[in-house]
Amino acid sequence: MDKEERKIINQGQEDEMEIYGYNLSRWKLAIVSLGVICSGGFLLLLLYWMPEWRVKATCVRAAIKDCEVVLLRTTDEFKMWFCAKIRILSLETYPVSSPKSMSNKLSNGHAVCLLENPTEENRHRISKYSQTESQQIRYFTHHSVKYFWNDTIHNFDFLKGLDEGVSCTSIYEKHSAGLTKGMHAYRKLLYGVNEIAVKVPSVFKLLIKEVLNPFYIFQLFSVILWSTDEYYYYALAIVVMSIVSIVSSLYSIRKQYVMLHDMVATHSTVRVSVCRVNEEIEEIFSTDLVPGDVMVIPLNGTIMPCDAVLINGTCIVNESMLTGESVPVTKTNLPNPSVDVKGIGDELYNPETHKRHTLFCGTTVIQTRFYTGELVKAIVVRTGFSTSKGQLVRSILYPKPTDFKLYRDAYLFLLCLVAVAGIGFIYTIINSILNEVQVGVIIIESLDIITITVPPALPAAMTAGIVYAQRRLKKIGIFCISPQRINICGQLNLVCFDKTGTLTEDGLDLWGIQRVENARFLSPEENVCNEMLVKSQFVACMATCHSLTKIEGVLSGDPLDLKMFEAIGWILEEATEEETALHNRIMPTVVRPPKQLLPESTPAGNQEMELFELPAIYEIGIVRQFPFSSALQRMSVVARVLGDRKMDAYMKGAPEAIAGLCKPETVPVDFQNVLEDFTKQGFRVIALAHRKLESKLTWHKVQNISRDAIENNMDFMGLIIMQNKLKQETPAVLEDLHKANIRTVMVTGDSMLTAVSVARDCGMILPQDKVIIAEALPPKDGKVAKINWHYADSLTQCSHPSAIDPEAIPVKLVHDSLEDLQMTRYHFAMNGKSFSVILEHFQDLVPKLMLHGTVFARMAPDQKTQLIEALQNVDYFVGMCGDGANDCGALKRAHGGISLSELEASVASPFTSKTPSISCVPNLIREGRAALITSFCVFKFMALYSIIQYFSVTLLYSILSNLGDFQFLFIDLAIILVVVFTMSLNPAWKELVAQRPPSGLISGALLFSVLSQIIICIGFQSLGFFWVKQQPWYEVWHPKSDACNTTGSGFWNSSHVDNETELDEHNIQNYENTTVFFISSFQYLIVAIAFSKGKPFRQPCYKNYFFVFSVIFLYIFILFIMLYPVASVDQVLQIVCVPYQWRVTMLIIVLVNAFVSITVEESVDRWGKCCLPWALGCRKKTPKAKYMYLAQELLVDPEWPPKPQTTTEAKALVKGNGSCQIITIT
């Protein structure tokens, strides 16, 4: 049964889960209720914390189809459990028609097409979701997504919109007319309200959730225990501390909810116009929108309340909310394959592939372009949490837990403390029984030892360092939406950089153009803005082939397009409605040269016939635009010169892509060499092409033609050469990272040779380093996939393999330190296509290439994400720095993603830098390292604090004594809290160092440090405890004891006159207690100083003025009350009078303790790494990180790196293995 009933939902996706069915069991419920009563409610708490136990304890297994409760478990490494209740959606509440006619209106749910034809097939679709007779659909909600029962696949599945399984043809044929009112009401029933509801929980709800945290329950238990033992003050202090902690936590959680609510509420209810089947326009609230509705985009723009695909008109959209990129984007209508001559009717619509035609939820439509009498329309494809914005909000509401070694080790550390507490618990019980102590006292004292060992201030102490780091980051303009990641940033050892706008200046400068005439390159020209070229096709292409638009009179759009358009000095005008009518309804945008550039009109006789027919004004109208596509690496437009009969097609894009679409006879023979010369110098090269279109192509045909019909058989016109300058700070920042042993990788959408050139210029690849280009080819015509290896500098000599200099083959350098292994002198470079082929067919080569891959060119957004994953798979801690535009996936996937966006809250990445400079990367790593070391310091200090106090109490229990209420209070509040919150204030060290902080608490040096301090503290406490008993004046203390008289000094008595009248029930006042209290109080301060590490990750301790001041003040205060007792202080702290020479002896014990502690800690720091393995007799271990282990292996691999002009082939017919062989081709 188990095997049958374990199903998977969201298979192959990030949120894949196993699903199990359960039904409520009454007898189990009765037993659990009894258990809850017997355990005083503790069992209920346990079941609240553990959903899996809760379901298994109260339910029995059942078939998923008929169950009442589902238990879900994520399939990732966290294996988290969730449970959800099955609900019933009754379709009988549907007001319009009978079940039979309803069936054709229900979407198919699996690959939802939302079909509307009442066919037999569609009638059958109702049963996919519902129990046919009752017309009821079973569903459950998990993380704001509804999962409906689907009879076809016998599993639950979430309801999809028009974003899956719908062809572009059917979008036009079946969905463009709109919905009937009945159909709309029916879909609304299924899809629910179109809103991204971020409910701000009430303070009471949040309070209950926060208070039921296991830690606060433990604190509540501690407070009750202390109250029964009359430790009221300390209990009250903990209550106050907990209340402050809960209130601050509630405030920050609620603030985040409110911020998120405000962020999504901007579009929650706006009025929108939708088209119904009979072409009437109905105005409804945006919350009533459903997939399939045809929405009218208003002329003055709007904030999109859903994801919709444009079927009519053009929109200018600001997508900064999603991408962090504030450059307006032009969206055009989805090509209609059925109208196209070469119609590709079977192409499926996908919001990602067709993002240039999709308006995403939450983005702002600034302006719309339309043609006279036609509305700008878009079909709703996704609503609510299914939209791109909804998915973003879900990822913020339900984040994946951060898997970091520090946190895993923290739990192990707590378990160790619990084990220590267990030993103390047993010891206390045995000791009390032997001393015939009352049962009540035994219970209280033995439980008390547990509350001492697990420190109540631990969570607050741990978050302090991160909060301070976040505040420091904010000061330098780095905003953080995921504070837990600051610690992880301290571990980064590889950073990926986007090129354009990140390493280089955002804007490109036009260096010049190189035109082609008669298939030959002319010499490069600098000035494009001249009379000679004004009417050339080359300039016409530069004037029309772009996505620029005017927003409030200012030209805006892609920076590259802007530079290109500014270079020719033309004027762009958005035509008004009247002008559009004048131009036969064809020209929404017009470009024309300034009058001074046009040649003066000459008599008709001297002109060609064609020019004579031209009107006096020369202007070009842009009829249709095919936006730039990163997958196709090009954009094109259809334009018409005013007065011309034929239209022109212009195209620009990556030279390789453009040349491939041109007539071969128009492409110069030396095209490849000229292109290579420019790209090697680091220029960004764009190619232009043109062709005259047939006169039969009317405006209406052009509006619906596919881009493939236009983009072929072109004439190659030449190259535009753009210069992309390095940002001033780039080389220095990269040098800092290299010095700190942090690898740098370039991931760009630009061409390979340009990227390699920029990598050399900025110091990512050093002058003497070799670059090996991996060119992978997919399987073709029965041949297996293969990789050709070229050496970048010898690419031009490919035809003469014998000419390769043996010096070109890189040398492997053997390093003493494993950390330097990545610094060997060769780098791999590849483009996005090769990367995909290698991922698919050469899986065993991927780790090796990741070890030395430095340049990844022509990478699509999803390939960037795959690269980050591949690097993480070999155990790199990966940072990603990009401008946010097409790096969203990679920024989210990296351990530390930094978006260089000016928007403070770019929700696409955990970190956002307000200044668009990569200098934020070393700053973030420095702060991360400081926060990480602070966490270690605090953890070590808290461990020592609990062990010192635990040992003090255990020693005193042996004589049936304890620390006094105010002694506990003084230690916990005055010493511990002050020290913990000030020791976290050390700022980060001013520069990055090559040394890396440890990644976990459980490392040899760290454990040795903690254990040595524990032994030292226990030793000196025991020394004081047992030595005081050996003193000649020592006796078991009673109210009339007066050891001070031995000094012959009279004033000691005065401080203890009152003691005689008080009875000490708990036996607090005695010589042992006073000795242990003073020695332990100093020990807390000694370990705080010993553990407060400065260089190389944090500023030295003495620069943390608050910490220095606090420690000095506490030292002086404790010294003062020890050497010169004050009657009132002694009375409050329940300290007894001891002779002066014993006070001096205690001071000597403390000084020796301080000297030993600090010396040992310094020695561990200095020699721990090298001496510990030797002392423990360990052999040199295999490195833990895969990349380091791999680097060791590759040092002795004779086949690596591949030799120049060799080919690696994938072994045929070995599926999923990806093994390969190297064949040398001579």
Helix fraction by DSSP (H/I, runs of at least 4): 40-55%
Overall form: globular
As for the number of domains, it is 6
Distance between the termini: 61 Å
Mean pLDDT: 78
Main beta sheet strand tally, sense and closure = 12 strands, mixed
Q: In the CATH hierarchy, what is the architecture of the largest domain at level 2? A: 3-Layer(aba) Sandwich
Report what the structure shows.
With 1226 residues, the chain is of the alpha+beta class. It folds into six domains: 1-94 and 135-158, no CATH class; 205-260; 271-397, Distorted Sandwich (Calcium-transporting ATPase, cytoplasmic transduction domain A), CATH 2.70.150; 478-507 and 724-793 and 824-914 and 1182-1225, HAD superfamily/HAD-like (Rossmann fold); 514-596 and 618-723, Calcium-transporting ATPase, cytoplasmic domain N, CATH 3.40.1110; 928-1038 and 1067-1176, Up-down Bundle (Calcium-transporting ATPase, transmembrane domain). 41% of the residues lie in helices and 18% in strands. It contains 40 helices and 43 strands. The strands form seven sheets. Strands 21-41-40-39-22-34-38-37-35-36-42-43 form a twelve-stranded mixed beta sheet, sandwiched between helices. It has a nine-stranded antiparallel beta sheet with strand order 24-23-33-32-31-30-29-28-27. Strand 29 (620-629) and strand 30 (634-641) form a beta hairpin. Helix 36 crosses helix 39 (1140-1175). The longest helix is centred in the C-terminal third of the chain and has 38 residues, at 920-957.
